[in-house]
Structure formats: structure tokens, C-alpha cells
Write the C-alpha cells for this entry.
Amino acid sequence: MAQTRPLWQFKEPAKSYDVVVIGGGLHGLAAAYYLAKDHKIKRVAVLERRYPGFGGSGRNTEVIRANQRAPEILPLYVQSNQLWNSLSAELEWNLMVWMKGLVGLAHSEAGLNAMRMRHETQTRMGIENHLLTPAELKKLVPALDVSDRAAIPVYGGYFNPPGGQVRHDAAVWGLSKGCHRLGVDLCVGVEVTGINVADGRVQGVETNKGSIAAPIVHMAPGGYSSQVARLAGLTLPVVTLPLQAMVTEPIRPFLDQVVVSELYFCYVQQSLKGDLIMGAHLDPWQSFKLYNTFDFSAEQAYFILQLFPDLANLKLMRSWSGLCDMTVDGCPIMGRTEIEGLFIDAGWGYFGFKSSPACGKNMAEYMATGRSPENIKSLGMERFYEGRMVPETYIARS
Amino acid sequence: MGFLIPCPNCGLREVYEFKFGGEVKAQPGPEADLKAWRHYLYFNENLSGVHEEWWYHSAGCGEWFRLKRDTATNEIIED
């Protein structure tokens, strides 16, 4: 039967709310959703200046995984994986979660040693991971070239089952639907132009649609985090760098895992419709411009052909870019700020997509109860002043 | 599209020849406390607009120099 009820409706913002969320990406939508669902806070608005999912939520390479390095943050990614797997049923909206697993490739003894270290951490934390020889890799991924033909041959690798792909647009739509059902106001075309603070407490926000009063304001602005934080007079420990990705024409299914080369810094996976999603290259200079370069496509194509020579002559369909607000330690900034009632969830670099449901859940709990949940307690901004970095590393760094 | 960087020695060259050195910041003095140093090291204005920054011509002459660039458009601003 045809759907007659709209899945969501955008609203004009009211004059006041219990919580105002700045940013209608996955992090903001998830925070609003869990505020309403877990904590029964109904007067919540999500303010988005463009459209839901304009930023990183729709510009990533759709990979989810929980095989990062730092034990401080791994439980958050594990929680996120669990939420991704339950959200489709909960939202009654198919997020097309495909737990196909990740295959990581090392091309040297040093690269393999880094994998061994992460393997030990993951095993200790109950995350399934297997270290593989080139012969075992070949068995798992038949199209992979493990011969000596490549400029830098495959030396070893891992198979990490609890990871895969989620359809990113479906996630934005599903959470929009969930928010709408629970009575959250989704306000698009609303640009926050100021954050009102008095006596060290947040009072609300100024927007192009007028003032909105709120005792709690949550900043979830993705790559634009520094711009939003500056409205409250805060400087963040981030730089915003542009990331590029691309997709080929669809071909018959041949690749059942996400393949990552940690030396070549490239990801490749085959989507359900058959195209190969490839990325990700980070231009290491600050830029808020979304652009793609020929150098990126040529470099990625070269890397992918080193791994999968049979893909030669495949056509590229599209490329795109997104903004990554990067911290120096590779971990996000989550929690309170020095202004009471003002919360932040930023600095995600390019780990923002995979972590989004758990971020929303934990930030919602923090805002509703005033106590930091266990999974994000190491991630406050104060760690940069206390010299207490979380030793995460970016894998695909250019 | 990438963009071109004007090296003081080599002229306009492809941006991938250079290494980015970050925003130009005021370095704290010797009397500054640890917090000021950490702020200097880890925090950035991260402007979407014109700011001054360092570049290093790593695949060229090896010169470090300053430049004004609009990070919203990647346009180089000549003084």
C-alpha cells in the first residue's frame, strides 16, 4: 500500500526549547532522537542551515568498523556497531546494514607489527579479529593480487568481521523519521548566527529566523565546528581538511569485504548496486571548499590497481569531497564546554559517520543527566590542556 | 580543482609540490605557562575565510614562506 503519511515534516522553529541541537547531520539527528526516546525530552529542535545530511553525513565512504587503536575510544565504536544493527528495526526503516567485515593489508613488517598491536587490543576487548598471511588473504579475497607484481607487495593483513557498510542517506532519512515521530522539530534553512551566553551559562541561540531560548545547546556541526564554536567565543583544537572519494561504474559482485591498504591509504568496497566506492584521500591543508582533483583520482586508481589489477579500464562515475575537522590525536571532542549548558560533539575527522549513533546516544545521556557516560569520559576538550591525549591514529592519512 | 601556490623563488607551482605548515600563530614567550603553550600547539582559529599560513616548498627549492589564502575558495590573496 502506498505511504500516505509523510515520514517527516520540517517546521519553523518555536521561541523556546528544552534543547537546541545545532547541525542536522547524523550526530545532531541521533542526539535529538535519543533525547526524545531515551530521556523523554520532547521539546527539542534540530537547526540545519542547508538540508539534513548536507555535510559529512552524505559525503563519507559508508564504512563502519570498530578496529581503531585506542582502548579509550574502542567501546564507543563497538556500541555504535551494535546500534547500527538495531536501528533499522527500531526506526522501521532499512538502513541496509551489511556486516561484511574489513580486510586490512600490510605491506611491510612494520605495518604488520602495527596490526599485531591493534589485534591484541581488540582481542582483549572482545572484538573479533584475525591476522592473516598473504595466502589466507588470497583465499578470502580471490581478486586480490598477493604476488610480487605490485610495486610494494602484500605482506600480511587482518580480517575484522564486525564492520561493513551502512547506506548513509538511509541513515539520515531513518533518523529524520525517528525524530519526527517522537515530536522533535526539524528546522531546515535555519542558520545559527549567534550563541547567547550570560554569566557563564548558555541562554539560547540567535538565528536568521529569530532568537530561540534554550537552557541546553548542543553543537554537532561536523566540519564546520570551528565556525559554530566561535559564535560562543570558543576556539577548538581542530583544523578542517578536505577529503575526497569516488565511485566507479557498477560491475558484477566480486568483493565481499571492505578492503583497506594501510600503506597505500586507500579503501575500496563494492556497494549493493555493484559500484566500487573508493577513498579516501585527505588534502593536508585547511580548506572549507569542496573540490576534487585529478591527482586524487589518478593516485587512487593507481593504488587500487596495485591491489586489484583486474579492475583496469573500469570507468569512474563520480567523485565528491567532504570536510573533516581533525584533532591532533585522532580522537573527537565530546562533552561539556567551559560554558554551562553548552555541549559539543566535534573533531571527528573522518571517523564521524561510523560513530554517529553512539555519539548521539551518549551526548543525549550527558545532556539529560548532567553526568558523562563511561564511553566518552576520556574525550573532553580539557584533555588538550591537560596533556592527556588519546593515542588514536588516523589510518588513511595522506 | 587543485590550486597553485606562488613560491617566492619558483613562481606559481602546483599545490601538491608543497607541504602545509599551518596557521601563522603568535608563539608564547618564555614566561608563558603550560596551558598557553598547549593552546599554541593544539588549538587553531580554523577560519573559513582569509588567514595567513605557512607553506614549505618540499618538492622544489625548500623555502618556508608565509601566504594569505581564503580557505573558503582557496584563492591566494596578494598583498
